[in-house]
Amino acid sequence: MPASATAVTIRPVEGTRDRQRFIDVPYDFYPGRYPQWVPPLRRDVKDTLDPSSNAFFEHGDMQLFLAEDASGAAIGRIAGIVNGMHLQKHEDATGFFGFFECVEDYAVAEALLDAAADWLREQDLERMRGPANPSLNDTAGLLVDGFDRRPSVLMPYNPPYHEAFLERYGLERAMTMWAYYLHKKYAEYERLQRGVEIVKRRTPGLSLRTLDMDRLEEEVRTVREIYNDAWSENWGFVPMTEGELQQLADELRQIVDPEIVFFVEHEGTPVGFSVALPDVNQALQHVPDGRLFPYGVPSGLTTLFLHMQYGVHKCRMPLMGVRKDYQGKGLDSMLVLATIENGPANGYPACEMSWVLDTNDRLKNHVESLGGVVDKEYAMFETALPAHD
Description:
Blueprint: E1 9-12, H1 15-29, H2 42-49, E2 60-68, E3 74-83, H3 84-90, E4 94-102, H4 106-122, E5 127-130, E6 132-133, E7 139-140, E8 142-145, H5 161-169, E9 172-183, H6 189-202, E10 206-210, H7 216-230, H8 242-255, E11 261-266, E12 269-278, H9 281-284, H10 302-310, E13 314-322, H11 331-345, E14 350-357, H12 361-369, E15 373-384
Parallel strand pairs: 4-5, 13-14
Antiparallel strand pairs: 1-2, 2-3, 3-4, 5-15, 6-7, 8-15, 9-14, 9-15, 10-11, 11-12, 12-13
Helix pairs in contact: 6-11, 7-8
């Protein structure tokens, strides 16, 4: 993808060839320019954009756009996104943009954002927020600090100029999100262990267990039930559908390590969970074209292959939730302690906890008190969509 453009044409993606060009954009642009970028597997991106493969399309829709220069070369991309579950939950007439990439030329960014905004207006929406790829339950947010470090699994990476382009267009920061880094060398084990003992004394009958892979679909259903309850009042929350539940189960089979996924139970009933995932980005950084083999690795063998071929020594905790009627009792401390104790024993001496909403002061203070430090900063941006004259 060229480094700059003097003329730009935006056109909607139509057909298989256009869709492949849309997928190819970052693989053509980042290598050689941004060494910290980690290419996602192409087959995963393809599945995300495929209505027959992604449960998001059961309630959502998106229109993809390509930016081309005068020669017809792709110099950017964007998607306008309607999230039906978001609209059902929030009733705020907000649409989204995502999969945003462009050369360092504001004219290209402006044209792409115009295309997404115009399409969202056609869907009778009044605000635009992003980036979301395609929802907050997927890869979402814009990296605004931490460009010299590689992103963890399922976290975004983008050039630094994206923030300035979004702000110049009129998008304002809607939420800041933080990624915390915690290493076993610096974890405040004793403080956390004392806190967990107090939690257990105050709420007798608490116990912990790891993920049971033989009952994966049932376990994922439990995660969904707790997640939809625990997160229901959080900023931007969108409940997970049954179809998305099944998709999550299928995806977890590819990557999950059951020894770092925990459930906290009260008298045998699950009331909280945490999911940590092996940071396969440590391996994918060695696969610059996003292809493991010409025909791919069978999904169930993906994590095993990456571990054996390249080594994965860090995990990321993207999800943690405690039922509302158990919140404020310190159960999250049990889940964090279990992760930082079991992680090193299973080859993960470090863990990224991300992302944490800036409004979640209790969790931020808790993570920092355990020795966690801010490693990266992300943000979501939004703007009103005034009607055209």
